[in-house]
Every structure is written in C-alpha cells, then in structure tokens.
Automatic annotation (TrEMBL):
It comes from Cryobacterium breve. The lineage of its organism: Bacteria, Bacillati, Actinomycetota, Actinomycetes, Micrococcales. It comes from the Bacteria. SUPFAM superfamilies: Restriction endonuclease-like. This is DUF559 domain-containing protein.
Length: 300
C-alpha cells in the first residue's frame, strides 16, 4: 500500500479523514505519518502533505473549498484583477470568518452549496463548473466574459458547459454573452477585442498570416495588436516576439504590443495611441491606393 503522504499527494496534497479512511488508511497509520512529519493535521479532519500551498492551508483551516477566482487561477483561467482568496463554505455554516489570512491576504467567503458537482471536485477544491459559476457572479461583465472565453481556451470547460452556464447566468451578462467568441488566446485579448469593438472599430481575432502564424487582433485590417500576458510572453519570448513584429511590419501592417498595465490601468492613453496608429495606417493605405489609381489612370 502507498504511504499516507503519497495518498494525500494523489488527492492534490490535501485530504479529509473520510477520504483517507476510504482509501484504507487506518487511524494508527495517520498518527504515525503525523509523528514522522510526513503529513500535518491542518484542522479537525483535514490533513495536508508538505506540498500544500498557502491557499490550501487557508481552505483547510476554514473547513472550506478553494472556489471562484482562486480555483480559476490554479487552472490559469482568466480571473480578473482581484487577488483575494475566494473560499466556498456550505450554505448555513455558522461562525465568524477572518477577512484576511495570517500573511494579510484578503479572503472572500461564499456561502453556497455546490450547484455543479463533478468528478474533478475535491474536498478542498470545487468542480470547474462550480468555480466558473461562482466567478461570473463575482466578476464584472468585462471580466466575466473574458473568464468564460478563457475557460474554453484553457480546456477547463467545454463550449457546451459554457453554454449551460450562460443559460443560467445573471441578466446583467446577457449582452456580453451574445458577444462571446472562442477565438481569444487570453483574457486580456478578449478585453481589448470587446473594448475596441464597443468604440466602433472593426476587430478580427486570431488572423492567420502566412509566415507569422496567428495574430491576436487585427484592427481595421491595418494594425495588429498583441496582448502580452505573463503566460506566453516571458523573457524567453522576447526575441521571438520581436522577429514576429518585424515580419508583420514587413507585410505593411503596423504591429503593437500591449501590456497588462496599459490595458487595465492606462486604457485612456492606450486607446488614444491605438486610434492615432490606426488613423495613420489608414491614411498611409489610402495614399498608396491613390498612387496606384493615379498610375492606372495615366494614358499609356
Ligand atoms: Zn503532496
Ligand atoms: Zn468569488
């Protein structure tokens, strides 16, 4: 039989007494593992192995599950800007709960019985459907829509599962749901695509360009916009990204790259810059077409 610590590892580094008893761990084996320091009892009936992270410790001590935005972040699904820990407790659970953990991280509690159970649900983590369901209630419209698209892109939910959630989503999300398209490679891309369309630009997502691959967004058919997320654009991507930018420019299309902060904290300035670049690109294109038409009109 596997060691108690290995069994806890197999359950995601946290387990309840019931789960462990169900796997054949006896109370005496549990005591021995604690004495040897291979596992810890974080709270009554909850055990962690040495790999458990801070969120799992907080969930265990609060007898709750990691849910909502925090469950999404673990799966690299877009979860907006709120970095607090979101934990779910069964509805009607009594007792007061701290608003922060020992290190000062804010904690938001949701009292709700799971609406969507799933095979991947754990004693310490809600199912993917439950996590996204909670998140679209916690997030504003912009981030909720980005979260739904990202959940599909990251393989966290299928399009059919997202459709199920959309059918029961709050009324405030209906407009955004009609605009859903599962082209975005990141939450930031969804946000930029929607914001630009809402101010009247024609924006096409994931345009396939020979020799370059897919471009995140193409505005008015003349400016390519890439959104630099932490995931895809680390230091090792720097050189590859620059090669790609040069190839795009060589095809006569302006190429710009937006960072997280430019999108979320400096949007007014960013939008003004995009507007200027698009206008310049359109003028350049009309001048080129003008010259071609003039040449065509020239008598032979
Ligand atoms: Zn482990
Ligand atoms: Zn939440």
């Amino acid at each position: 039989m596997h060691s108690t610590a290995t069994l806890i590892c197999s359950l995601g580094h946290a387990a309840t007494t019931d789960e462990l008893l169900g796997l054949g761990v006896t109370p005496s084996l549990l005591r021995t593992a604690i004495q040897h320091g291979t596992i810890v009892r974080a709270a009554r009936g909850v055990y962690l192995c040495s790999h458990a992270d801070r969120d799992q410790w907080n969930a265990a001590t609060a007898h709750s599950r990691i849910s909502c935005l925090s469950a999404l972040r673990r799966a690299r699904v877009w979860a907006g800007l709120d970095r607090s820990l979101h934990l779910q407790l069964p509805a009607h659970t009594g007792g007061s709960r701290p608003g922060r953990d020992r290190s000062g991280q804010p904690i938001r509690f949701h009292w709700a019985n799971p609406r969507f159970q799933g095979a991947t649900q754990r004693s310490w983590l809600v199912s993917p459907m439950e996590a996204v369901w909670q998140a679209i209630h916690c997030l504003d419209e912009e981030h909720a829509i980005a979260c739904l698209e990202s959940a599909v892109h990251e393989g966290f939910l299928t399009i059919d599962q997202v459709r199920t959630l959309c059918g029961q989503a709050p009324a405030r999300l209906r407009g955004g749901i009609r605009e859903l398209e599962f082209t975005a490679g990141s939450g930031m891309e969804t946000v930029v695509r929607r914001r630009l369309r809402h101010v009247g630009y024609s924006v096409v997502a994931q345009v396939s360009v020979a020799g370059i691959g897919d471009e995140d967004l193409v505005v008015e058919d003349c400016v390519a916009i890439e959104t630099d997320g932490e995931k895809w654009h680390g230091a090792d991507r720097f050189h590859a990204d620059r090669i790609r930018d040069l190839k795009t420019e060589a095809l006569g299309r302006r190429s710009i790259r937006l960072t997280h902060d430019q999108i979320f904290y400096e949007w007014e300035t960013t939008l003004a810059a995009i507007a200027r670049i698009v206008t310049d690109a359109q003028r350049g294109r009309s001048r080129r077409f003008g010259r071609i038409l003039t040449r065509l009109d020239d008598p032979l």
